[in-house]
């Protein structure tokens, strides 16, 4: 019997070089990704915003508006809307804070005048504590005036950067989609994915969901304004944001306005306002059915949206939730296209 | 691709995608060698594209890990919801069949009943805990006097003035608690965060129950067709394991809570509902949960005297034996095919990795991995 000779295997020198090059490249890429986390957040946010705004731009172009003018109109319109909303929110917050400073200590004084809290008030002086708490609230929330100003300046810089990136991406979005289509037509390895259709489908779904939330937010703000409820813009924004969360968003979104209507407004006004809200919800549901943009039954969009909303909020707060919901729709669009029979 | 050259001494290149020569299988356990050729050094080279794919996968995994770490809470809520959904899925299926409701309706019925049950329990427990908690301060002097009469530790407690210190701590507790505004705010904030977390988990649970079948169908549709049979087998065995584990854990925890309640009532232990709740919650933690869960009952029994404490401890130990040897095998069955040592080690690692929640989730996760391994090996049995 012949002795067995072990087979000797060596790595080709060129392989070792390749492994080293790719390992170094991967490490460098990881370091860059980790260090540029904030910039990546801006880029992703701008990308999501550009994807959403591309819809109105196309709508204008289809109405024979020149592309440059369409881009300018949508950009300026969005900026004007954002500025108005910011003004509305800041104005309402300042106004309500002033009201709170007067009302809260008085309410606590009423509460502790008799009953089981009276003894607690003697020991702790709850009214003075409440006043102090409200007086200190701005500093607790935003820090000292100097640090608040610094933070505001930094945030403003970030917003300007994201807006600039969004405009650039909006300009390039059409080219990006055309390139995807050319890749498909040329038999690119990604052809099986049908990624161009997926991106388009996902973007359309995201626009629909955001559009629905904005519409419901606008209706809420309008109803609140007409019913004389304070801070209508804040209530509208609250509603618009929460409506991105399926099921529970409906309840949480309506809760503050409904509570204020029931507790603070005459019954007739409250009833009419509630009826208007119900009609708005029903109209949105009908529009959903008529436009058939609801996902087919095999896409668990409610679950995915809820998960995206929660993860996005943890990742980047209010904006993060919106961005990740948009990205979730995009991902579902691409996966649907991938799963569709070729 | 150039294959070899013994004469020229140039490297043999073995691509990652193709084999160079046929290989003769051997029956003696020796690694197969290429047929008909003497041994000589062979060089392995893997092309750029394969290496780049591996590197991209590694980078992707690391980035995904980083993102998952950043959304830690959402991941925890999701895991809890998945385990809960697997536990309740059979119940939803039964309700669907019995009532002929659509899935969403059946989910609404199951979730409403579960929530009502929990709310009812809370309504029963909370007033009793508050009432008995209020009485604790009045009963404290007598209980502390009893403590110094204990056989072994009584003298040491008296010498170290433990009863006086405990009494002082109890007397000043309300003032300390209410005068610390920051502490109160912190407590309120923590309570709000926990409540929000519970609501998030509940929402994900409901949506998973309602859309679970659609999620499975979508996942099957996205994966390549030839993976589907294996994925189906794996998913089925993981579903059985986690489902039975989750249902079994809930049932065992309820039994433990009731047992603690009954023992406490029989021995007139103060704050019995709290002890029952403690035993119920700790019972989800494997191995250690039983001991720690009963610890509260024994500690509270100690406040009424040494005799009731010893009795409570003995009865609780007997109950634990009954649970481990009779109830658990019947309720959980052989769903979790892990040895007690493995369970203990896994639970400890779970605690180290993610606290109490890690201990609770570690067992079903490892059991699911084990079930998948057995299924792939062909040893999977319908538990």
Give the arrangement of secondary structure elements.
The complex is a heterodimer of chains A (342) and B (383).
Chain A lengths: L8 E3 L1 H23 L1 H26 L4 H46 L4 H8 L1 H17 L2 H41 L9 H33 L4 H11 L5 H17 L2 H25 L9 H39 L3
Helix pairs in contact in A: 2-3, 2-6, 2-7, 2-11, 3-5, 3-8, 6-7, 7-8, 7-10, 7-11, 8-9
Chain B lengths: L12 E2 L27 E3 L3 H23 L1 H28 L3 H45 L6 H6 L2 H18 L1 H42 L5 H39 L5 H11 L5 H15 L3 H26 L8 H38 L6
Helix pairs in contact in B: 2-3, 2-6, 2-7, 3-5, 3-6, 3-8, 7-8, 7-10, 7-11, 8-9, 9-10
Write a structural description.
- The complex is a heterodimer of chains A (342) and B (383).
- Chain A has 342 residues and is mainly α.
- In chain A, 84% of the residues lie in helices and 1% in strands.
- Chain A has helices at 13-35, 37-62, 67-112, 117-124, 126-142, 145-185, 195-227, 232-242, 248-264, 267-291, 301-339; one strand at 9-11.
- The radius of gyration of chain A is 27 Å and the shape is globular.
- The termini of chain A are far apart.
- In chain B, strands 1-2 form a two-stranded parallel ribbon.
- Chain B is built from eleven helices and two strands; from the N terminus they run E-E-H-H-H-H-H-H-H-H-H-H-H.
- Chain B is mostly helical.
- Chain B has two domains: 1-20 and 43-55, no CATH class; 74-146 and 197-377, no CATH class.
- Helix content of chain B is 76%, strand content 1%.
- The model of chain B is unreliable at 1-30 (pLDDT under 50).
- Chains A and B meet through strand 1, helix 1, helix 4 and helix 11 of A and strand 2, helix 1, helix 2, helix 5 and helix 6 of B.
- Strand 1 (9-11) of chain A pairs parallel with strand 2 of chain B.
């Amino acid at each position: 019997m012949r002795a067995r000779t072990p087979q000797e295997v060596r790595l080709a020198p060129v392989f070792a070089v390749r492994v080293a090059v790719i390992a170094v490249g991967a490490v460098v890429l990881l370091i860059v990704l980790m260090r540029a986390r904030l910039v990546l957040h801006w880029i992703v946010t701008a990308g999501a915003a550009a994807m959403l705004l591309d819809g109105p731009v196309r709508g204008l172009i289809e109405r024979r508006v020149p592309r440059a003018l369409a881009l300018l109109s949508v950009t300026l319109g969005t900026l004007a809307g954002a500025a108005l909303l910011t003004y509305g929110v800041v104005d309402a917050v300042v106004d309500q804070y002033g009201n709170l400073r007067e009302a809260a200590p008085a309410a606590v004084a009423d509460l502790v005048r008799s009953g089981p809290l009276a003894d607690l008030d003697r020991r702790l002086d709850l009214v003075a504590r409440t006043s102090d708490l409200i007086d200190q609230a701005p500093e607790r929330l935003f820090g000292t005036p100097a640090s608040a100003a610094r933070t505001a300046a930094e945030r403003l810089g970030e917003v300007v950067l994201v807006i600039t990136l969004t405009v650039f991406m909006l300009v390039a979005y059409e080219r990006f989609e055309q390139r995807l289509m050319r890749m498909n037509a040329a038999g690119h390895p990604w052809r099986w994915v049908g990624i161009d259709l997926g991106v388009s489908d996902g973007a359309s779904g995201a626009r629909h969901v955001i559009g629905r939330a904005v519409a419901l937010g606008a209706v809420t703000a309008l109803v609140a304004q007409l019913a004389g409820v304070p801070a209508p813009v804040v209530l509208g924004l609250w509603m618009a944001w929460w409506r991105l969360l399926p099921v529970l968003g409906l309840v949480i979104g309506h809760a503050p306005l409904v509570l204020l209507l029931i507790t603070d407004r005459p019954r007739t006004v409250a009833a009419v306002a509630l009826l208007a809200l119900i009609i708005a919800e029903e109209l949105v549901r009908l529009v959903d059915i008529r436009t058939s943009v609801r996902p087919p039954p095999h896409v668990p969009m409610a679950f995915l949206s809820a998960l995206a909303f929660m993860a996005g909020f943890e990742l980047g707060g209010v904006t993060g939730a919106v961005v990740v919901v948009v990205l979730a729709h995009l991902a579902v669009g691409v996966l649907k296209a991938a799963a569709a029979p070729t | 691709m150039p294959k070899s050259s013994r004469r020229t001494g140039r490297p043999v290149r073995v691509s990652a995608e193709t084999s160079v020569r046929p290989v003769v299988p051997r029956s003696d356990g020796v690694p197969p060698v290429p047929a008909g050729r003497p041994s000589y050094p062979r060089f392995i080279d893997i092309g750029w594209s394969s290496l780049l794919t591996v590197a991209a996968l590694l980078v992707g995994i690391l980035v995904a890990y980083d993102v998952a770490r950043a959304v830690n809470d959402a991941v925890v809520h999701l895991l809890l919801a998945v385990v809960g959904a697997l536990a309740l899925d059979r119940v939803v299926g039964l309700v669907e069949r019995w009532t002929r409701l659509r899935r969403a309706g059946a989910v609404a019925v199951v979730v409403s009943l579960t929530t009502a049950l929990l709310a009812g329990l809370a309504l029963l427990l909370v007033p009793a805990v508050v009432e008995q908690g209020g009485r604790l301060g009045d009963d404290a002097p007598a209980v502390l006097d009893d403590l110094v009469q204990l056989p072994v530790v009584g003298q040491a407690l008296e010498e170290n003035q433990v009863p006086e210190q405990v009494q002082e701590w109890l007397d000043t507790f309300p003032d300390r608690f209410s005068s610390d505004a920051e502490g109160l705010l912190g407590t309120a904030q923590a309570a709000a965060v926990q409540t929000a977390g519970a609501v998030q988990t509940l929402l994900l649970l409901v949506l998973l129950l309602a859309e679970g079948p659609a999620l499975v169908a979508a996942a099957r549709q996205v994966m390549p067709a030839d993976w589907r049979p294996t994925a189906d087998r794996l998913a089925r065995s993981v579903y059985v394991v986690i489902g039975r584990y989750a249902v079994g854990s809930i049932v065992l925890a309820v039994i433990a809570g009731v047992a603690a309640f009954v023992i406490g009532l029989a021995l007139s232990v103060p704050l019995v509902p709290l002890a029952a709740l403690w035993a119920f919650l700790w019972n989800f933690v494997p191995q250690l949960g039983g001991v720690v869960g009963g610890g509260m009952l024994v500690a509270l029994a100690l406040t009424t005297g040494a005799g009731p404490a010893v009795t409570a401890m003995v009865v609780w130990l007997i109950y634990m034996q009954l649970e481990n040897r009779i109830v658990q095998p019947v309720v959980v069955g052989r769903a979790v095919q892990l040895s007690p040592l493995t369970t203990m080690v896994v639970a400890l690692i779970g605690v180290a990795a993610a606290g109490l929640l890690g201990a609770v989730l570690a067992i079903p996760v490892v059991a699911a991995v084990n079930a998948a391994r057995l299924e792939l090996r062909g040893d999977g049995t319908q538990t």
